Amino acid sequence: VFKDASALGSICEKVIIPNIRFRDEDEELFEDNPFEYIRRDIEGSDAETRRRAATELVRGLRKYYEKEVTELFSSYINGMLNEYAKNPGQNWKAKNAAIFLVVALTVKAHTVAAGTTATNEFVNITDFFTAHIVPIFADGNAPDPLRADALKFLATFRNQLPDEMFRESVRHVISFLACDAVVVHTYAAHTLERLLVTGRKTGKYTLAHFSPHVESALTGLFGALGKKDSHENEYVMKAIMRVISITQEQIVPYAEICIQKLTEIMAEAAKNPGKPGFNHFMFEALAVLIRTLCKVDKAALHKLEGLLFPPFQSILTEDIVEFSSYVFQLLALLLQSHDKPLQSQAFLGMLGPLLTPALWERPGNVPGLARLISEYVEKAGDTIVSQGKLEGVLGIFQKLNASKANDHEGIRILNAIVRHLPLAAYESYLQQIFMLLFARLQGSKTNKFVRGFIEFLSVFTIVHSVEKLMEKVNGVQAGLFNNILSHVWFSESTFDGASFNDRASVVLAASRVAFESSVLTQAGTQALWPRAVGLCVSVLARFSTDDEEADDLTKDEQEGYEAAYAQLAYGAQDGAAENQALLSARRTFAQGLSKFVATHPQNVRCDSTSSADTPSARLATCAAIRFALLALRRRFASPQTLNVIGGLWKHVLT
Q: What is the mean pLDDT of the chain?
C-alpha cells in the first residue's frame, strides 16, 4: 500500500509536511529560549516532538521505497521552494520546511563526530546546497531561522561538499558569528568547529586555507561571548579552543590577547561556575595556548606565568571547587616546560602548601596534584631532598597507596622519585615502601594496583637493574623476589588502561629481565622465561598502527566534563613522545629476542623435556608467534628468531 503514489502523496500532504512546518511556538522558542531550541534541534533531545516523529516516518518510508519516495517527495520540496520564491520575506517558513525535508530524506547514516556518512543516492546535495543554501549565506536580510537552517545543513553535509565549496563556506560561517540571534551565532560556532576538525582530518581545509581567517574567527567568537545570553556559551568556547589548537604556532601573534580575554572570562565564571562544559573548554583553550607557546618560545614562559598566576591564586585561595582541579593540571603543564634545576621562586614557594594533607582529601584534586608533584620531583628533585620535603612527598604516596581509587596516582609519584632522584636520596625508605606495597598486594589487591605495582618494578629495573631490585626485595624477606616474579610480575596482567609510557617501561624492563640478565636462565626460574616474553607481547599486541598515526585530533572526542575530575586532553603528557617510547620499546624487545635466541638456544628449546613445556608457556608462545609476524613485517626479527618461532609453533600444535 505504501508503494502506491497516491498513498504516499496523501501521507506527505496530510501527515509529514504539516508536522515539519515551522510553527509559531517554534519561532517563540527560537527567540525566547534559544538554548532549549538548540538542545532539541542539534543535540538530539527532540525524541518526542512532532518534527522528529515526521522525520522517522520519512526515513522509514525511504528505507523500503527509496526511489519512489525520493521522486514523490522531491515534487513537494520543489513546491515549497516555489512558494518561498514568490514572497521570500513572507513565505520563509516554506523554505525552512523544504530544507528540513531534504535532510530527513537524504541522511542514511550520521555520527556526531563525522557528520553524515551515508546519503540517499537519488538526492544531489551539491546542487541543492548551491541553489538554495548559498543564497541564504549571501542574503543580508535572510530571517534568522533560515540562517540557522543553512548553518545546520552545512554542518550535516560537510563531508559531501566539494573541497572548493567547503573552503568558501568557512568565510560565510565566520560572518554569522556577528549575528545577535543566539541560535545563529551558536550554530555558526558549532559549524566552524566541525568544519575545522573535518577539514584537517580529510585535507579539505588545512592551516594554509584557514590562516587568512584566524583573526576574524577569534574576533567573531570572543565577540559572540559578549552578546546577550551567550556569556557562557559552550559551543562558542569549544570553537575558540578548536581555532587555537588548529592554528598551532600561528596563534602566537594573538596569544596574549587570547589569554587576557580567557582569564577575564575565567574570573567572571568563577563567581558562579554554573556551566561545566563551558568551563572545561575554557581551560582546554588555556592548555592549548600554554603548550603551543612553550613549544615555540620558552622565553614566553615567564610572561605566561605573570598572566596566569594571579587568577590561579585567586581560585585556589577562594577554594573554587569546580576550577581547582583544572588549575593543578595547568600548573603541571607550566612546570613541565621549565628547565631543571627549577629556578622559579613562584613555583618553589608553592611546593610546601601543595603537600598539605588536607588538600589531598578532595578526590577531584588528586589526579592533578599527583601530576604536579611528579613534575616537581623531576624539575626540583634536589630542592625537595635538600629542604627535607621528600618525607612529605612519600607521605602523600603512603596516603594514596591505601586508597583503591587513587593508588595509581601514588604509583605515579613513586615512579617519578625512582626516575629522577638518586638512589641514595630514598634508599633508606625503600624497605618501608616495599612493605607498604606488599601489604596492599596481600590485603586488598586489585587489578589496577597490580598493574601499577608492575609498572613500579619495571621503572626500578630500568633505572637501576633487576639485580638491585632483587637485592632490595629479598631484603624484606628472603626468596620473596622469585615469588613476585612468578605470581605477580609475569602473571596474567593486562595493561589496556596504561599510558604508552608505562607500557613502554613494562616492555623494556621485562626485556631486560628475559634477555640481558641471568635471573631467568637459572634452574629454578627458566620456566618463567616464556611468561616474560608473553608479557611483552601482550602489551605490544595492543599497540596498533592506528596508535602510531594518532595526532592531536584524536582528542576531539575525548574532551568532556565529569563531576569528580575532568582530565584536560591538551593538558596531558606529550602523546607523540609516548608513542615514540613504545615504538622504541618494541624495537628493543625484537632485537633482544633475536640476540637471546642466537646466544641461548638451550633456553628456548621446544622439545618435550623443555622446562618451558607448560600450558602457560604455550599460551605465551602463541602470543610470541603473533608478535613475530608483526616483527617480520617491520623487519625487526632475525632469521634465527623466526626459525625458533617456527619450532615453537609446531610444538604448540602438537
A: 87
Within 380-429, where are the H helices?
381-386, 390-401, 407-420, 423-426
The pLDDT value given to residue 155? 96
The torsion region of residue 608 among left (phi > 0), alpha (psi -120 to 50) and beta comes to alpha
Q: Is the peptide bond before 341 cis (omega within 30 degrees of 0)?
A: yes
Hey, which residues does 110 pair with through a beta bridge? Answer: 116
Which spans in 297-357 are helix H?
Answer: 300-317, 321-336, 345-354
CB neighbourhood size of 602 (10 A): 9
Instruction: Give the amino acid at 438.
Output: F
| Amino acid residing at 27 | E
* C-alpha cell belonging to residue 79: 513546491
Of 241, 187, 251, residue with least CA distance to 214: 251
220 Cβ contact list (under 8 Å, min separation 6) = 174, 175, 177, 178, 188
Half-sphere exposure of 213 toward its Cβ, with a 13 Å CA cutoff?
23
Helices and strands: H and E segment counts in the chain: 35, 2
Evaluate whether 147 touches 135 at the Cβ level (below 8 Å).
no
Residue 522 grid coordinates: 637459572
Residue tagged 610572561 (cell numbers): 303
Span 15-63, pLDDT tens digits: 999 999 999 999 999 999 999 999 988 877 766 788 889 989 999 999 8
d(CA 560, CA 540): 29
d(CA 385, CA 422): 10
Q: Within 10 Å of residue 82's Cβ, how many Cβ atoms?
A: 12
Buried b (16+ CB within 10 A) or exposed e, 133-155: bbebbeeeebbbbbbbbbbbbbb
Distance separating alpha carbons of residues 141 and 162, to the nearest angstrom: 27
* Beta-bridge mates of residue 119: 107
**625/631 Cα distance (integer angstroms):** 10
pTM for the whole structure: 0.87
In this prediction, residue 316 has a pLDDT band, given cuts at 50, 70 and 90, of very high
Distance from C-alpha of 135 to C-alpha of 130, rounded to nearest angstrom? 8
Instruction: Return the residue matching grid coordinates 579552543.
Output: 241
Q: How many angstroms separate the CA atoms of 71 and 472, rounded? A: 79
Strand partners, 109: 118
Which of the given ranges, 7-21, 51-65, 129-143, has the highest pLDDT on average? 129-143
CA 229 to the chain's CA centroid: 30
**Cα–Cα distance between 552 and 556 in angstroms, integer?**
8
DSSP reduced 3-state for 115: strand
> How far apart are alpha carbons 196 and 173 in whole angstroms?
11
Residues 322, 275: contact at Cβ < 8 Å?
no
Give 111's strand partners.
Answer: 115
Cβ atoms of 463 and 418 closer than 8 Å? yes
Type of residue numbered 104: A
Q: How many CB atoms lie within 10 A of CB 494?
A: 12
CA distances in angstroms from 215 to 153, 243, 331, 445, listed in the order given? 25, 10, 28, 54
Specify the pLDDT at position 632: 41
SS3 state at 278:
helix
Three-state DSSP class for residue 157: coil
